[in-house]
Amino acid sequence: MDYEQIKYTVNGHIGTITLNRPDRLNAFTREMGAEIISAFDEVDADDNVRVVVVTGEGRGFCAGADLAAAGEDTFNAAARGRDPDKVNRDGGGLVSLRIFNSTTPVIGAINGPAVGVGITMTLPMDIRLASASARIGFVFNRRGLVPEAASSWFLPRLVGISKALEWCYSGRVFGAPEAADAGLVTTVPDDEILDRAYEMAGEIATYASPVSAALTRQMLWRGLTFDHPMQAHKVDSRAIQALGELADVKEGVSSFLEKRAPEWTLNPTEDTPEIFPEWEEPTFR
What we know:
The two termini are 31 Å apart. It contains eleven helices and nine strands. By secondary structure, it is α/β, with parallel strands linked by helices. Helix 1 (30-45) packs parallel to helix 2 (91-100), helix 4 crosses helix 5 (161-170) and helix 8 runs antiparallel to helix 9 (229-244). It has two domains: 6-204, 2-enoyl-CoA Hydratase, Chain A, domain 1 (Alpha-Beta Complex); 208-271, Lyase 2-enoyl-coa Hydratase, Chain  A, domain 2 (Orthogonal Bundle), CATH 1.10.12. The strands form two sheets. Strands 1-2-3-4-6-9 form a six-stranded mixed sheet, with helices on both faces. A three-stranded mixed sheet has the order 5-7-8. It has helices at residues 30-45, 91-100, 117-120, 151-159, 161-170, 176-181, 193-207, 210-223, 229-244, 247-257, 268-271, and strands at 6-11, 14-19, 51-56, 106-110, 114-115, 127-131, 135-137, 173-175, 186-188. Strand 1 and strand 2 (14-19) form a beta hairpin.
């Protein structure tokens, strides 16, 4: 598919989604959000893609919502022609939920400023690498808004409630080292950000069974909502039993014993067992 505000490429088993409005520091628009969602649809439908890296074109990752076009009416649904009598869904939230539901490991390569939705969209990514000079900000309260993109769910789970509230109340922009201290990102030298991301992606693509990775991603993210470890034990037990009968487990054991790289044959779109029988995706009301 041809995109206008992002780029999507595949090299080997690694896909790359690049936010592509460098003249606006990759500021987020509804169109960009729709394209990111579409790209993740492509990623999950292609069993050749085992890992996806998300980064920004130019010197920034994403400067947040593009405020230039509509100015003070940027967040005014009625002024922008949307139905004011219904709840209009937050575009950043649609992106975050799509990433959350992905079956493919996701690495965020935050190569520069990541502010507002530019940082909240990364929260459901599995691993976040950030350039040492990157600047990050949850600036919503300073704009008269609240955190969006489901970040009120993700952020406290990643850094704890106190740090999440400190960052959101203040709305200040801070450096990547502070984000790293709180466990939000891992910092790397500016000129190594993509190399490190691809090195990590390559290791996952080579050594992790794609089906195992798809299940592991959903087990850990969905497990954040469990009330008791017994729920995780039930899911673990179903997964171990189902996978134990499949070819990838035999290959994983054989490759270990034979001291060689594994050759995976199973595909997430066709071979992933259903281990969440009680899981029901909440609907929007």
